[in-house]
Amino acid sequence: MDSLTLIPTQELLLDEQLLEISPIPISGTPPGIARVYRFTKPFPFSGNAGFYYRDSELNGNTENSLQLFFGDDSFTWTTGSVVDLVKHYISNNLSNVEFAALTAGQENSLPVQIADFRVERVEGTTSIYWRTTLEEDASHFEVQNSENGRKWNVLGQVKAVGNRQSEQEYYFSDNVPRRGTQYYRLKMVDLDGSFMYGPVRSIIPIAVESIIAYPNPVSDRLRIDTEKAVAYLKLSDITGRTLIEQKNPERYLNLSTYPQGIYLLTVETTDGRHQVLKVFKN
């Protein structure tokens, strides 16, 4: 595809994707080459990826030291890329990654280098882990979430160490229940306000048919989220005493006046699904 080659080792779907070639290199020291392949949205890929470039697009980079870069608005560099100096072709094997763009540049040229970025489901919470191997004048990391890989929302910030040439590990917890495929990425912000984006990861956090209540623990307003409409709900204390009982209720309860403790929330949906949830009140 326009001198880009993708040889997948598993099913690859590129439906509803558009591909463009940009001459604007990614930032770095030095900047990348003046050829960046960009798809409409990130997609999972395992296999061999590569592309042909022109000698005039090297942009001051040493050709035999090029590495393949993959990412979205920002990039992760690879190691062990194969460069054909005669054909001006670079390629590398990628395993279980997601990207929306490919380019090439010098190894260690990015001001913040992400060696590992993982999203896992742990005990009902989406846990985001990442590890850096180099930081230069880094301010903080902004954790972002998306339901479609295009529109992103800010979940929170994690302060960066700032300047470090050894490994540093970070962690962020997303406690909000979510449905369907969820995408996560990092916005890496420098002290001067400049920024770049890290790789994208996806996860399906919960089953579609689940009944969930959040936030949990709750201090005031408790929201009930279901695939079908709620037909009945009942809130009981730990002794089984009924405190609230409603038919065809709103999808939230105001618990601000209730004392701290453990409560049991019974929810029935219009399709007959029944579930009892334990709710912790702050």
Look at the structure and give the mean pLDDT.
87
Overall morphology: elongated
Q: What is the CA-CA span between the terminal residues? A: 56 Å
Tally of helical segments:
0
Largest sheet: 7 strands, antiparallel
In short, what is this structure?
With 282 residues, the protein is mainly beta. It is 0% helix and 56% strand.
Give a verbal description of the structure.
The chain is mainly beta and 282 residues long. The protein folds into three domains: 4-106, no CATH class; 112-203, Immunoglobulin-like (Sandwich); 212-281, Immunoglobulin-like. It is 0% helix and 56% strand. It has no helices and 22 strands. The strands form five sheets. Strands 1, 2, 3, 4, 5, 6 and 7 form a seven-stranded antiparallel β-sheet that branches. A hairpin with a 4-residue loop joins strand 21 and strand 22 (274-281). The radius of gyration is 24 Å and the shape is elongated. The N and C termini lie far apart (56 Å).
Which key features would you list for this structure?
mainly beta, 7-stranded antiparallel beta sheet, 282 residues, single chain, 5-stranded antiparallel beta sheet, Immunoglobulin-like
What are the SSEs and their pairings?
Elements: E1 4-8, E2 19-22, E3 36-52, E4 66-71, E5 75-77, E6 82-84, E7 89-106, E8 112-122, E9 125-135, E10 138-146, E11 153-159, E12 168-174, E13 182-190, E14 195-197, E15 201-203, E16 212-214, E17 221-225, E18 230-237, E19 242-247, E20 252-254, E21 261-269, E22 274-281
Antiparallel strand pairs: 1-3, 2-3, 3-7, 4-5, 4-7, 6-7, 8-9, 9-12, 10-11, 10-13, 13-14, 13-15, 16-17, 17-20, 18-19, 18-21, 21-22
